[in-house]
Specification:
single chain, alpha+beta, two-stranded antiparallel ribbon, 98 residues
C-alpha cells in the first residue's frame, strides 16, 4: 500500500509494516527524506487509465421531458422590467412624525 508522509512524499508499505508504524518511525522517515512525490493521484492504483472510455453504457444524452410545459410554476409571470428611477423614494423617517 502507499502511505503519504507529512512532507507529501509517498512510500510503499506492506500492511504489516503500516500496522507496526509508530510516530517515531514516521519522524525518522521524514528526517531521512524518504519517499518520492507522486505526480498523479492514480499512482499505484488498481484502476487502469481509460478503463471506462468507449463503453456502450456511457452516454452523454439526457432523456428528460419537462412536466410543466406552460412554465407557469416557479417562474415570475410578471415579466415587466422595473428600473431604479421608477421606484418611489423612501420617505425620511423624521418627516413621518409630522
Amino acid at each position: 500500500m502507499l502511505y503519504q508522509l507529512p512532507t507529501g512524499k509517498v512510500i510503499s508499505l506492506t500492511i504489516e509494516e503500516y500496522l507496526a508504524l509508530t510516530d517515531q518511525d514516521i519522524q525518522f522517515l521524514v528526517s531521512i527524506n524518504a519517499g518520492d512525490y507522486a505526480n498523479s493521484p492514480w499512482v499505484g492504483s488498481s484502476i487502469k487509465p481509460n478503463a471506462y472510455k468507449n463503453k456502450d453504457y456511457v452516454t452523454n444524452e439526457i432523456d428528460y421531458t419537462d412536466p410543466d410545459e406552460d412554465k407557469s410554476h416557479g417562474d415570475n409571470p410578471n415579466t415587466d422590467t422595473i428600473y431604479l428611477d421608477e421606484l418611489p423614494e423612501i420617505p425620511d423617517p423624521d418627516s413621518l412624525d409630522q
